[in-house]
Amino acid sequence: MKPASFEYLRPASLEEALQYLADLGEDAKIIAGGQSLIPVLNMRLSTPKYLIDIGRVEGLSYIREEDGYLAIGALTRHVELEQSPLVAKHCPLLLEAVKWIGHAQIRQRGTVGGSIAHADPSAELPCVLAALRGEIVIAHADGEETLAAEEFFLTYLLTSLQPDQMIKEVRFPVISNAAGYAFTEVARRHGDFALVEVAAVVELNENQEIALARLAAGGANPVPCVLESVEDFLIGKAADNSLLEEAGEMASESVDPDGDLHGSASYRRSLVKTLTKRALQTAIQRAGGISR
Ligand SMILES: Cc1cc2nc3c(=O)[nH]c(=O)nc-3n(C[C@H](O)[C@H](O)[C@H](O)COP(=O)(O)OP(=O)(O)OC[C@H]3O[C@@H](n4cnc5c(N)ncnc54)[C@H](O)[C@@H]3O)c2cc1C
């Protein structure tokens, strides 16, 4: 199918893009990499009167280390995360996760801002952002605001972004060198969206007990979901295989997945259990714990 007709606008600056959004409101839609929006337009699930192509907006493609965060401009492509020494050094969890996104062609075009704004609950970047308690910098014609990931993702493909707002930057907290991390997922075929995915970060104390745990699952709830009860349970515990078993069980009980064509709710729940165990095991090993 072809999209419904629209007027194509191509701002060169952030200010110009924000002014278009302020003037056109709900009649306009931003396009960045187009990897999610073009299919939506082609299927006429969305029929905006105006398409604002931000692809040539100056100054929105960058990766910087700032104040304990990796600050990533909205137009940064997935492939740029894969190739960034800063990401490899300060947020290897993000590097591990981004490789699961679609195929190389999609990662060449898709952007960080687009992935966060699209808010697919099975997408990798929202899951990592949720696990790390990252932030989203939102710009509008009158200024900027910063939201925590948990305030931003509302439900399937829905965020708190207003029609006159756009994502300017996404902030992923830096992971300590002492931490172990892991991102793991199951998809039906290579390159497909995850059925379920789990992101984990673990730090151990000198007694090999868990001192910090960050855990989130995607594809298991309408939004990427922080497994907070499991994180709390892990703190102070010695990392061993029975702990992993209990943590996996708790994780599967704390999610409420929907079933669909690709997998039943109970299958997704059992994946949460298995992937939580797997992610925690790898993260703990990388933090220097559990014998291999
Ligand atoms: C075959 C295929 C497989 C894929 N597999 C995966 C996968 O496994 N995992 C995964 O995470 N993704 C996957 N994707 C999607 C891909 O990651 C997209 O790149 C991403 O979801 C959206 O980024 P984009 O830049 O292409 O956004 P676009 O498609 O241009 O836009 C997506 C949405 O975000 C909005 N938007 C874009 N930028 C901004 C901004 N700065 N501020 C506010 N709103 C904005 C748009 O208005 C639109 O609603 C796949 C895509 C395809 C085609």
Q: What are the segments in which pLDDT stays under 50 over at least 5 consecutive residues?
A: none
Largest sheet: number of strands, sense, barrel closure:
5 strands, antiparallel
Query: Strand sequence of the main sheet, in spatial order?
Result: 4-5-10-6-7
* Small-molecule binders: flavin-adenine dinucleotide
**How many β-strand runs?**
14
Topology as H/E string?
A: EHEHEEEHHHHHHEEHEEEEEEEHHH
* Rounded radius of gyration (Å): 19 Å
> In CATH terms, what is the fold-level topology of the largest domain?
Uridine Diphospho-n-acetylenolpyruvylglucosamine Reductase, domain 3
What does this structure look like?
The protein is of the alpha+beta class and 292 residues long. It folds into three domains: 47 residues, 2-Layer Sandwich (Uridine Diphospho-n-acetylenolpyruvylglucosamine Reductase, domain 2), CATH 3.30.43; 111 residues, Uridine Diphospho-n-acetylenolpyruvylglucosamine Reductase, domain 3 (2-Layer Sandwich); 107 residues, 2-Layer Sandwich (Enolase-like, domain 1), CATH 3.30.390.50. Helices cover 36% and strands 26% of the residues. The protein contains twelve helices and 14 strands. The strands form four sheets. The chain has a five-stranded antiparallel β-sheet. A four-stranded antiparallel β-sheet has the order 11-12-13-14, sandwiched between helices. A hairpin with a 2-residue loop joins strand 4 and strand 5. The model has no long low-confidence stretch (mean pLDDT 96). Flavin-adenine dinucleotide binds next to strand 2, helix 6, helix 7 and strand 10. This is Xanthine dehydrogenase family protein subunit M. Keywords: FAD, Flavoprotein, Oxidoreductase. GO terms for molecular function: FAD binding; oxidoreductase activity.
